[in-house]
Design a protein that fits this description.
Number of helices: 17
Distance between the termini: 23 Å
Radius of gyration: 23 Å
Bound molecules: GDP-alpha-D-glucose
Shape: globular
Length: 469
C-alpha cells in the first residue's frame, strides 16, 4: 500500500462485515458522520484509515473500499475484554462522564490499553507518508499521539476527544492520570467538544505536569530542553446534514411518519427518545418524569405516547446489563398501570433501526427528549432539528450535553431535577405553533450552518496553523 498523506486512526474501521445467505463475505461501509466528513479529504489527500475490524482475532491485510485504504488492527478476545470493554468502557467512560457509574480500576486493563494503543500507533506509523498528517480519534486511543510522535517525529498529529473531559477533582482519581495527559500532549492540536472540556484538560495539565499554559497553548518540554506547542480547544462536532434533509423530504419516509402516528392510535402528541442504552443518557430520569405526569393526570395516555428507542449497546459490561433491567422494569410498571387496549404509555424498542426509520420517527415526534446526565455532544438533538424543515416540533435538551452550548433555543433542562423536567415536558407539549416555529428556525440555522464538514475543516485548519507544511 502506498504511503498515505492523511491517516485517520479510530478504534473501529468504518466498515462492517456482512455474511450473505450463501455464506459469502463482504465489507460494507457503515454510514456515519465521521466517515462522511472525512471522505472528501481522504480521497483528495490519499487517505488511509487505521482501526479494528470489529471481530476478535481477525488478522487481515490492508484493503481498499470506496477509495479509502483500510488498515486493520487485530485484537484478541482477551484484548477486547480488557482494552475495549474494560479500560475504555468501564474505566474511562464512567470516569469522564462524571462517575455516573463507578469506574473500575484494574492494572491488567491498563496494561492491555497501553499494549493496544502501541499497536495502533505502530500501524499508523507504518502507513503515514513523510511529513503526513494523522488524525487520532477518541478516548480508546489517548496514548496514541505521544507513541506515534516517538516513532515518527516528522508527522503532524491531531487528536479529537468525542466525550467529555472531567473536572480535575474527578480526573485525579485515575491511577494513570499523568501518563494519559502525556499521551494526549503528543498531538499538535487536541480538540474537545466544549470550551469547558478544554479548560478542564488544561487545568489538569497545569496542575499535574506543571507545564506552562497560555490561553489554549501548552508548552510541552521536549528532550533537548526546548518546548513545542500543543493547542487544546473546542471544536464542536456536528452531523452530515445532507442525508437527513434528503430523507426528511422523501415521500415514502413522510408516509412512514404518518403510518407510525396511526399505529400508535393517533395520539395528540408523540414524545420521542433515541439513545444507545447507556447510563449517561438519562433514560431513567426521563421515564420517571413522564410516569409522574401520567400519575398526576397532567398527561393522559389517550393523548400522549412516549416512543423510546434504546439501541443495544455494550451488553457485556455489567453496568449496562443492570441498566437494561432497571429501565425495562420501570417501563413495564408504567405500561402496566396506564395502558389501555388502544393506547400505550411507552412504546419501548430495544432495537437498532435503519436511518430511514429514524428520520420517520423524528418527523412523527412532536417533542424530542434529550435528557443526558452527561454527553460530549449528542448528535440525536442535531439530527432531529435538521429533519424539521416544517419548523415544527420542540427539542427538550439537557444542559449537560455539548449541544446545549449551541442549541440555545431548545427547552433547557437539568435532568436531575425531576420537577423541572416534568415542567419542561409540559412546556414542550403545550407550546403554541408560533413559538415552535420561532425556536426551530433558529435551531435549524445553527445546525445547517455548522455541519460536520465545517467541523472537520476547522480542525484541520487549526492543525495546519500549528504545523504548516
Ligand atoms: C459519542 C458521544 C458525541 C442511535 N440508535 C440508532 C442510531 N443511532 C445513532 C444516532 C446518532 C448516533 O447513533 C448516536 O450519537 P450520539 O452523539 O447521540 O451519542 P454517542 O453514541 O454516545 O456518541 C457523543 C458523539 O460521540 C460524536 O462525537 O456526540 O456525545 O457520546 O447518530 O442517530 N442510528 C440508527 N439506528 C439506531 O437504532 N440508524
Amino acid at each position: 500500500m502506498p504511503a498515505a498523506d492523511f491517516v485517520v486512526v479510530a478504534n473501529r474501521l468504518p466498515v462492517d462485515r456482512v455474511i450473505g445467505a450463501d455464506g459469502s463475505e463482504e465489507w460494507r461501509t457503515s454510514p456515519g458522520g465521521l466517515v462522511a466528513a472525512l471522505e472528501p479529504m481522504m480521497r483528495r489527500a490519499h487517505g488511509a484509515w487505521v482501526g479494528w475490524p470489529g471481530q476478535a482475532d481477525l488478522h487481515l491485510d490492508p484493503f481498499e473500499i470506496g477509495g479509502i485504504d483500510l488498515v486493520p488492527v487485530a485484537l484478541s478476545a482477551e484484548e477486547i475484554a480488557e482494552y475495549y470493554e474494560g479500560f475504555s468502557n468501564d474505566t474511562i467512560w464512567p470516569l469522564y462522564h462524571d462517575v455516573i457509574a463507578p469506574p473500575q480500576y484494574h492494572r491488567e486493563w491498563w496494561d492491555a490499553y497501553t499494549r493496544v494503543n502501541r499497536r495502533f500507533a505502530e500501524a499508523a506509523a507504518s502507513v503515514a507518508a513523510e511529513n503526513g498528517t494523522v488524525w487520532v480519534h477518541d478516548y480508546q486511543l489517548q496514548l496514541v499521539p505521544q507513541l506515534l510522535r516517538e516513532l515518527r517525529p516528522d508527522l503532524t498529529i491531531g487528536y479529537f476527544h468525542h466525550i467529555p473531559f472531567p473536572a480535575h477533582g474527578l480526573y485525579a482519581q485515575l491511577p494513570w492520570r499523568d501518563q494519559v495527559l502525556r499521551g494526549l500532549l503528543g498531538a499538535d492540536v487536541i480538540g474537545f467538544q466544549r470550551a469547558q472540556d478544554a479548560t478542564y484538560f488544561l487545568t489538569a495539565v497545569r496542575r499535574r505536569l506543571r507545564h506552562e499554559v497560555k490561553g489554549s497553548a501548552v508548552a510541552v518540554p521536549v528532550e533537548d530542553g526546548t518546548t513545542r506547542t500543543a493547542i487544546a480547544r473546542a471544536f464542536p462536532i456536528s452531523i452530515d446534514t445532507t442525508p437527513y434533509l434528503e430523507l426528511a423530504a422523501r415521500p415514502d419516509v413522510r408516509a412512514r411518519a404518518a403510518e407510525i402516528r396511526e399505529s400508535l392510535g393517533n395520539p395528540a402528541k408523540i414524545l420521542l427518545g433515541v439513545d444507545r442504552l447507556d447510563y449517561t443518557k438519562g433514560i431513567g430520569h426521563r421515564i420517571k418524569a413522564y410516569g409522574e405526569l401520567l400519575t398526576e393526570g397532567r398527561l393522559a395516555v389517550e393523548d400522549v405516547t412516549l416512543v423510546q428507542v434504546a439501541s443495544p449497546s455494550r451488553e457485556r459490561v455489567d453496568a449496562y446489563a443492570h441498566l437494561r433491567d432497571e429501565i425495562e422494569l420501570s417501563v413495564g410498571r408504567i405500561n402496566g398501570d396506564f395502558d389501555t387496549m388502544g393506547h400505550t404509555a411507552i412504546r419501548y424498542l430495544h432495537q437498532g433501526y435503519p436511518r430511514e426509520e429514524m428520520v420517520a420517527l423524528y418527523l412523527a415526534a412532536d417533542v424530542m427528549l434529550v435528557t443526558a446526565l452527561r454527553d460530549g455532544m449528542n448528535l440525536v438533538a442535531k439530527e432531529y432539528v435538521a429533519t424539521r424543515a416544517d419548523n415544527r416540533g420542540v427539542l427538550v435538551l439537557s444542559e449537560f450535553t455539548g449541544a446545549a452550548d449551541e442549541l440555545r433555543q431548545a427547552v433547557r433542562v437539568n435532568p436531575h431535577d425531576i420537577e423541572g423536567l416534568k415542567d419542561a415536558i409540559m412546556t414542550a407539549v403545550e407550546m403554541p405553533k408560533g413559538e415552535q416555529g420561532k425556536r426551530m428556525r433558529s435551531l435549524r440555522r445553527r445546525v445547517l450552518e455548522n455541519d460536520v464538514e465545517a467541523w472537520s475543516s476547522s480542525f484541520l485548519k487549526a492543525l495546519d496553523e500549528v504545523h504548516p507544511h
